[in-house]
Write a structure and sequence with these properties.
single chain; 379 residues; alpha/beta; nine-stranded mixed beta sheet; three-stranded antiparallel beta sheet; 15 strands; 43% helix; binds iron/sulfur cluster
Length: 379
């Protein structure tokens, strides 16, 4: 099984915290669709006949492209890939772009899952983040999506925003529960170097997020999700039983995927490649038959590190049986001995050779995973 990711690199305006590749203008969108269509043709054999299970429109803001653009891209994909095993076609959308007419177009085009970028149900947070939509529009968009027949809904929420009190964070989660959203992705606000937020903080024009507040929000999140029957199946992802994102689960299970569009990443089991993060350069290279991506063959050490990092983030955990089969007994010993410290600290637990993070450990997921890496140990 495999997935296809399509990166739509346009947004209405740039959110202050964002470090994804996108431009705040629709100017090149027609040229982009033509170029993307060429890339689809060029890369039709990348997945070597694997059955496509999921398609995911991410970005950027896919809903900023008119629905006709999404339909056209799906038509081109149909020309070169079999959709007979496709179970999930997701589109990321901003509340402001949705209305009954485009939602109908999406349904007719075969999109069966929407991931809506809500971030917060409070206007002060949305202003801090420089989001386009308002809090009231966020709820309306969810109702419209339901009315259009979208039951498979996910929303994104952000915590650790300086304007977000503990009480309002609880209210945000309650709002999601009242709306009966089956899948919720919740991310801690991070200040990525070079973003507008980074610059504003360094100039003293806005408040920086605080780690302590973010950790408190994460604890509230885990408690409330549990109380409301959600599975914490990946560090940032919660779902009602079985309502996992099939597409993202494929990333976490090491399945192959083809990434199309500027800055999109692809993986085929032994190498990664990533497209140029520039609409213009990407188009020029494809038109001229040039190279529009960079590529890296993964060493066994890198593959082990990646397995540890990704698997530890999920509720299915890091399986020493898999490590034995893929990387040999030595690495089982290496992993298990280094994990002992975290088990004694109550941050990890082990059951029949499968290691998972405890709720406390989830607060330190990245640090724990990197301590278990092989590449780091080799220096
Ligand atoms: S809508 Fe998403 S991709 Fe676009 S600027 Fe905001 S966070 Fe970035």
């Amino acid at each position: 099984m495999a997935g296809i990711y399509i990166h739509i690199p346009f947004c209405r305006k740039k959110c202050h915290y964002c470090n994804f590749y996108s431009v705040a203008s629709p100017k090149h969108r027609h040229k982009f669709i033509d170029t993307l269509s060429e890339e689809i043709f060029l890369r039709k054999n990348y997945l070597h006949g694997k059955e496509i299970r999921t398609i995911y429109f991410g970005g950027g803001t896919p809903s900023f492209l008119e629905s006709g653009g999404i339909v056209k891209i799906l038509d081109v994909l149909h020309n070169y890939f079999s959709f007979s095993s496709v179970q999930e076609i997701t589109l990321e959308a901003n509340p402001d772009d949705l209305n009954p007419s485009v939602l109908k177009d999406y349904r007719e085009a075969g999109i069966n899952r929407l991931s809506i970028g809500i971030q917060s149900f409070f206007d002060e947070d949305l202003r801090y983040l420089n989001r386009v939509h308002s809090a009231s529009r966020a709820s309306e968009a969810i109702h419209e999506a339901r009315d259009a027949g979208f039951e498979n809904l996910s929303i994104d929420l952000i915590f650790g925003i300086p304007t977000l009190s503990n009480e309002n964070w609880e209210k945000n989660l309650d709002a999601a529960f009242v709306l009966e959203i089956p899948h919720i992705s919740a991310y801690s606000l991070t200040v990525e170097p070079g973003t507008a937020l980074d610059v504003l903080i360094r100039k003293g024009k806005t408040t920086a997020p605080e780690e302590e507040s973010s950790n408190t929000h994460f604890r509230i999140l885990m408690t409330m999700m549990k109380q409301h029957g959600y599975e914490h199946y990946e560090i940032s992802n919660f779902s009602k039983p079985g309502r996992y994102s099939l597409h993202n689960s494929q990333y976490w299970n090491g399945e192959h995927y083809l990434g199309l569009g500027p800055s999109a990443h692809s993986y085929n089991g032994h190498s990664r490649q990533w497209n140029i993060a520039s609409i213009i350069e990407y188009a020029d290279q494809i038109r001229n038959g040039g190279s529009f991506f960079e590529k890296e063959e993964l060493t066994p050490a890198q593959q082990y590190d990646e397995y540890v990092m990704v698997s530890l983030r999920t509720m299915w955990g890091c399986d020493t049986g898999v490590i034995r089969e893929r990387f040999g007994e030595n690495l089982v010993d290496y992993f298990s001995s280094r994990a002992l410290k975290y088990i004694s600290e109550g941050k990890m637990q082990e059951n029949r050779g499968i290691y998972t993070l405890t709720d406390e450990g989830k607060l330190f997921a990245d640090g724990i995973a990197s301590d278990l890496f092989l590449a780091d140990a080799r220096g």
